[in-house]
Design brief:
Methyltransferase, Cobalt-precorrin-4 Transmethylase, Domain 2; 5-stranded parallel β-sheet; 5-stranded mixed β-sheet; about 30% helix; Cobalt-precorrin-4 Transmethylase, domain 1; alpha/beta
Length: about 240
């Protein structure tokens, strides 16, 4: 009898708070034989994986851990090679009949490594499913009690690395512009928000859902301060 191939699940574990894990995510994580998680370097450990720490804090134990290396680089060849190696490791376990849960911060279909693995694993004939998770920007909006959109308003999500003219143009087209990974660009974003008159109605958020979470409404006062990798800004037009 041919052994049934396992299923790959991309599981969004939310921004940081284990209580934001969905019931479905928790069930899939507990049932999966293998728990796969990304790391950024050969020396990184499971203790340094934020997604992994969320899962463990939620009481998920007993899975086979599978570290997958995804280097922090813009070298497209190196990135593709890493994705293919990771996919091969996953496929090996799927062919053994094991279900694999690949965990990712936020949602698997938004700025996630998981989306690059989907076509590679599907090409091998395995089933792939995605379990949505709470995004960091929706959690930030909730923490600040600032709506991302009301009525017929529009929202766009984009990297903070976008140029000033691009962000300015989006603010003309949308009511809320979510800028992800805003740490290095914070001063530039604040200057633009001040120029557009939206600084007071905009939100800065860092490490949402973690013990050192910081959420600030009115970003003009943050000029000159340092912000980390897990920071974002929600540029929001003031209500009329």
């Amino acid at each position: 009898m041919t052994q049934k191939t396992g299923t790959l699940y991309g599981v969004g574990v939310g921004p940081g708070d284990p209580e934001l894990l969905t019931l479905k995510a928790l069930r899939v994580l507990k049932e999966a034989a293998v728990l796969a998680y990304p790391k950024s370097s050969e020396t990184a450990s499971e203790n340094e994986s934020k997604a992994y720490s969320i899962v463990r804090a939620a009481g998920v134990e007993g899975n086979e851990p599978l570290e997958l290396l995804f280097p922090m680089t813009k070298d497209s060849n190196a990135l593709q090679e890493a994705r293919e190696v990771a996919a091969a490791s996953i496929i090996e376990r799927l062919k053994q009949g094991k279900d694999v849960a690949f965990i990712t911060l936020g949602d698997p279909m938004l700025y996630s490594t998981f989306s690059y693995l989907v076509p590679l694993v599907k090409e091998a004939g395995a089933e792939v499913r995605s379990v949505p998770g709470v995004t960091s920007f929706s959690a930030a909006a909730s923490a600040a009690l600032v709506p991302l959109a009301e009525s017929d308003e529009r929202v766009v999500v984009m990297p903070a690395s976008a140029g000033e003219e691009e962000i300015r143009r989006r603010m003309g087209e949308f009511d809320s512009v979510v800028l992800m990974k805003a740490g290095k660009a914070l001063d530039r974003i604040i200057d633009l928000a001040l120029a557009l008159g939206v600084a007071d109605s905009s939100v800065f958020a860092s490490r949402v859902g973690w013990k050192d979470e910081e959420v600030v409404r009115g970003i003009g006062k943050l000029k000159g301060r340092k912000a980390g990798y897990f920071s974002m800004v929600i540029l929001r037009k003031a209500r009329a």
